[in-house]
């Protein structure tokens, strides 16, 4: 063990310490990011023995919610991410060390770039999302498949890759990259080589499918199989066109024409790389093909969320390392895939977040230059309001009591650690997967302890009329934005 530790280069140890320091401010972030709070709310449901997808809903595979349940709160969730990311950086180092075995400078530069891009807020590296979690298992799977191609190791590689898929389905689009590497490695195409690739792909695929199949059995046993398949897999198909709702009524091939065009471009790109394989480095060809596949995954829905681009960071980091310190033809050729990598975010107008204000805000809080209130307001004017509402809910309800929050801000569920009376957590869940009429009837029948209606939310006339008659309307002095709070009369409120 000591010998293995001694083999870790000093620069990598310093880098991992820096990564740890960059992660410290994330442990103090407020409940301000929608996806994180949805994961934590479902995690809270798991802790109360609810069945995912059947009793409480979101449209991702189960691992992200199980991690949220294990964390229990946002700080714990961020701590898991911090440790996970340290391991991810180390895995990337080992992968790059294997691919660039003859150039230590390329390993160093690539790893530093990767560490920065996955930790800084630029692409939401400070947020717990499936993309930042899944790239570690993807790279570890690739590393095992590259080092060992015997059936048991390929099966293990597939098992590890399945972790990525069970975090988010688009991870599956990275899988062909390792098969592409096997194809690139063929010196002469014959039946023996083709059968060998088919055999290796079979063991790899069985490894990927086994955990997924086990989850199907698990949710079948819980009576939630159809809910699981629909939410974690099928609803994501509709998600591809939901960014352009005007296209929903169009035929499949028309509304998905841009997606199909991108798939065709990836296919042509892989063929072009294969045809030129003898003129370029095999590993460079593999990395370029991997980039094409991950860019396709990142642009599936054409939504401009920065964390989607995290899936492309491993291949981009490797290519940037090649560009900056390469010493052969690939250094010049790296410009071609990198041009595509930087064109895609510009073309699709991906968002990004500045990193300096994030760290400056934390330092100002830590040194007493700003108050906690000013710190919270840095993350959005609604954050302080949500904390005030959540505090009121925790003080007037028990953990088993249900509340309902309406509006584009379901963070109150996670903050108050209370669950909704229906399976849907966010208002877009109701709009996209259910109906407002059914939701109103179900909520009225369940009589939640507290109902919160945020300003500028869509009208729920039946529910609102019922609340005015059957609930007490509470005015919290700290909230002046028009948010309405309704409390069941039987609820004990000290201020009443």
What's the topology here?
Elements: H1 2-6, H2 10-23, H3 34-47, H4 63-71, H5 74-99, H6 104-117, H7 130-147, H8 151-165, H9 176-184, H10 191-221, H11 225-239, H12 252-255, H13 257-275, H14 282-298, H15 313-325, H16 329-333, H17 335-347, H18 356-366, H19 372-377, H20 381-396, E1 403-406, H21 411-416, H22 427-433, H23 436-446, E2 450-453, H24 461-470, E3 472-474, E4 484-487
Parallel strand pairs: 1-2
Antiparallel strand pairs: 2-4, 3-4
Helix pairs in contact: 2-5, 2-6, 3-4, 4-5, 5-6, 5-7, 6-15, 7-8, 8-10, 9-14, 10-11, 13-14, 14-15, 15-17
Task: Summarize, please.
This protein is mainly alpha-helical and 496 residues long.
State the main characteristics.
single chain, 496 residues, mainly alpha, 2 domains, 4-stranded mixed sheet, 3% strand
Shape: globular
Q: What is the H/E order?
A: HHHHHHHHHHHHHHHHHHHHEHHHEHEE
Question: Which residues form runs of ≥5 with pLDDT under 50?
Answer: none
**Widest β-sheet, arrangement of strands:** 1-2-4-3
The percentage helix is: 55-70%
* Rg, Cα atoms, Å: 25 Å
Cα distance spanning the termini: 64 Å
Class by alpha and beta content: mainly alpha
